[in-house]
Amino acid sequence: MSSDGDGDNPLGFEAVWHCLLASRNITFRRARHTGSGCPFLIIANDTNGDTQGGLIDDIRYDDCQAINTDGKLGMQIDNINNLPVGRVSLIDSGVEYASAAKAGIPAIISLGKVSIRGGRWKSFSQENFIIYGPASLDAVDVEVNVDANPAATGIVYNSEGPTRIVGGKITMTTASMTIGAGGTLYVSPTTKTGNLRTGRVGQRVLFVYPADIAKASGYDGMLARFGTTAGRSYRVMLAGKQRKDGADELLAFYIDAASGPIASTGFGRVEMQDAGGTYQPTSDAKSLAASARNIRAFNMHLTFVGTGNQVSVNFGGGEGGATLLAGGRLTIETIELKAAVRFVRACYTSNGA
Question: Which domain holds residue 155?
């Protein structure tokens, strides 16, 4: 670890695994750090103006894990005087922030051809991996835990540069969430999605509702919204319990077409327990009668081919409202449907499940 005594870090803050000027063919292996500073810092800078002398290339981090305590960036790759950065790779490496009070953005990648294989990241930020146009990111089987307050918006990979995401898992532990509206599960609505490629199979978002969510009245309480890519296959599972509040009326749990038809083809079920404990199909057009303080379990398990429109999962209790109880679990993943699978449902709309 250095406090930049070598003088080649123009940012001037403490760095942990900091590549020196013109570093090439360097590997950091099995390193551990808990404390202050930017764990992965790569800054191409040459105060003498030698555009080739400042090149940084072939930097590898193997099994390096840091716990940051002062809110510095987890990884920053940048330059001064327009100097180049080449290849940077992380294998089973990552950054965790010790607390929300002192937490920063895990990664801002402005330059280089960056690959991440595996690794564990813990964040308290709505923005996690930001990739600017001159850079590229290839991420495979990366695990990200996001605990952002207030609500996270699914900005886990925000890319301007070419980005490929294969596999991996995102665990969201926020009070509410909108999962990417730009065509993938991982990307914010402002992302230039034309630059992004995703793996065919295995992308997965797991979201556990950590606290009760109340809808005072009506039936339009949104539990999640996410975008789809036309022609890509998805599996969506959501299970939990909701309570009828206030007066006796109806409970509803349904999937809604947030911006046009949801699926070109697909199959599955959306259901909720009736008064006798039997699961019944449900939608916004078919709610189930419930007495005040009744608690009903619900379940959704859908597999469909997306149309590119957004999907919304809603609930409500009419007059008096309803509450989603803490502990509900939502999983959304991209999958590959085999040709042998026979679809038994043609389409999901807001009028049926």
Answer: 1-200
Count of domains observed in the chain: 2
Looking at the structure, tell me whether residues 107 and 71 fall in a common domain: yes
190 lies in the same domain as 248: no
pLDDT in tens, the chain (353 residues): 434 444 455 555 577 888 877 788 999 999 999 998 899 998 886 655 555 556 789 999 999 999 999 999 999 998 877 778 899 999 999 999 998 888 888 999 999 999 999 999 998 887 788 888 889 888 888 888 877 655 555 556 666 777 777 767 767 665 544 444 332 333 322 222 233 334 334 556 666 777 788 888 988 887 776 667 778 788 888 899 999 999 899 999 888 766 666 666 677 888 999 999 999 988 756 789 999 999 999 999 988 887 877 777 888 999 999 998 988 888 777 776 553 333 333 333 333 33
Q: Are residues 295 and 334 in the same domain?
A: yes
Q: Are residues 69 and 181 in the same domain?
A: yes
3-state SS of the chain is CECCCCCCCCCCCCEEEECCCCCEEEEEECCEEEECCEEEEEEECCCCCCCCCCCEEEEEEECCEEEECCCCCCEEEEECCCCCECEEEEECCEEEECCCCCCCCCEEECCCEEEEECCEEEECCCCCEEECCCCEEEEECCEEEECCCCCECCCCEEECCCEEEECCEEEECCCCECECCCCCCCECCCCCHHHEEECCCCCEEEEECCCCEEECCECCEEEEEECCCCCCEEEEEEEEEEEECCCCEEEEEEEEEECECCEEEEEEEEEEECCCCCEEECECCECEEECCCCEEEEEEEEEEEECCCCEEEEEECECCCEEECCCCEEEEEEECCCCCCCCCECCCECCEC
Do residue 102 and residue 84 come from a single domain?
A: yes
Q: Which of 175, 200, 225 is the last residue of a domain?
A: 200
Q: Model-level pTM? A: 0.63
Query: In CATH, what number is assigned to the domain containing residue 302?
Result: 2.60.120
